[in-house]
Amino acid sequence: MKITDIKATTVTVPLEAPLRHANGAHWGRFVRTIVQVETDEGIVGLGEMGGGGESAEAAFHGMKTYLVGHDPFELEQMRFKICNPTASLYNNRTQIHAALEFACLDIIGKKLGVPVYQLLGGKIRDEVAFASYLFFRYPNAKTGEGEVRTPEQLVAHLRDLKAKYGFQTHKLKGGVFHPRYELECFLAMAEVFPEDKYRYDPNAALSVEESIRFAKQIEHVNNDYFEDPTWGLNGMRQVREKIGIPTATNTVVVNFEQLSANVLNPAVDVILLDTTFWGGIRPCIKAAGVCETFQLGVSVHSSGELGIQLATMLHLGAVLPNLSFAADAHYHQLEDDIIKGGKFQYRDGKIRVPDGVGLGVELDEDKLKEYAELYRELGNYTYDKDPHRPDWFPVVPNERWADPAASF
What we know:
The chain is an alpha/beta fold.
């Protein structure tokens, strides 16, 4: 079997409401690039990458000179063809490789008539548990609904998510307002549902000292971990030494060099594996094996997935014996998807691992066209800008907090 073509289509899919974070916002939608890898046997594999727009489409088009004629079963050869570590000093293609790996695994599964999890050692769980992913949100520009700004609104949003999806673990994306205000919001959630589990993630916006102060005031909560309170391995190490909550990251341990540094001199207790950031499902499994050896925890990070990448997260979660935490997903924030049958469904806070061949999802061509057209109409948005604070930008550690009294 040989690869004959690589196609990339950028789409934008609406969110319930714009999501605020420490560096800016998701402006009411996600921008994703959908990849289709075609073969001479008529099998098409699906991949997905975050953002990109025209530049991502051009990057995937450029991969044709490397991969047309390549056997999609030869995954290690593909890795070195396009991600040779010294060549990648000049052309970092980790996330591009991830989307192509997804598609090749999809092709292999379809060719052999088995789900991807069978290619990865077989599943040990039928469902993967997910945490709610709670954001401070601007109201939906069309409906005026969906704002999350006050502790009362946050608790109401949490109640709604629990009722709809059954989440028992909750993650608050912070770094938007002053830590004192976000502490009030975080504790309000924990007071209402004290038996549930919690995570706080300010996207490394806090200083070491502020991180320690914050952690000391939430140590009585049923915390899974304290995620990326401050920047850098050394900063995280200083925090870890002085608090009673496990630390976690998806920012400062995202490759094997950083993982080895963390093993030698621990700064982070839980590694959040991301099938895009790490370059594919298989590198995540390798990293999880290292974590298992050194008794580091693992969870699954979300980078704003549609159904194709969510499927990769489900297959990853299905095979990891040491996945002891609920995975993250932005997925419930989406209004729609580009896969046949519509969005994956949550039940009791879990999503069933797809049992179909390959990744177990099919592309809805009508949805692909609809959201590709919407992307052409709206274009990109800038992740590290806030549409309601056009002249603002954050520093690290941050001190330029949003005003919680300002409504929009």
